[in-house]
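[step 3/7] fold_predict: job queued, chain A
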Amino acid sequence: QVQLVESGGGLVQPGGSLRLSCAASGFPFSGYGMSWYRQAPGKEREFVARITSVGGMTNYRDSVRGRFTISRDNALSMLYLEMDNLLPDDTAVYYCNTLYSSRNHWGKGTQVTVSA
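[step 4/7] structure written:
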C-alpha cells in the first residue's frame, strides 16, 4: 500500500524559507519519479516541481523556478522541497505525488502560509 506523508509546513513571513519533506513507502521509491503539487483556497491543484527517478533531472513551474529546489534521498525514500524567498502567492496546501501502478497517489498534504 502506497503511503506518502508530507511534513514541514507552517507559517512564514514573505521572503522566508521552509523545507518540506515527504516520507514514501509501499512502492520501490528509487524507481519512480516524484512530484510536488499545491492547492490554494478556491483554486485547482497545480504542479510545482518534479524529479526523475534516476539522474535527478528536475523541472519546475515558472513561478517557483529559481526559488524552489526539489530533491530526493533514495536510500531513505524521502522527497524534499526547499522553498526560499517565499511569497504570499505560495500559500497553499502542498502535496507529494507519484504515479505508480497506473494510479496517481497523493499524501494528505501540509499547509504553507506566507503572511506578514
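[step 5/7] annotate
The chain is about 0% helix and 55% strand.
The chain has a mean pLDDT of 97.
exit 0
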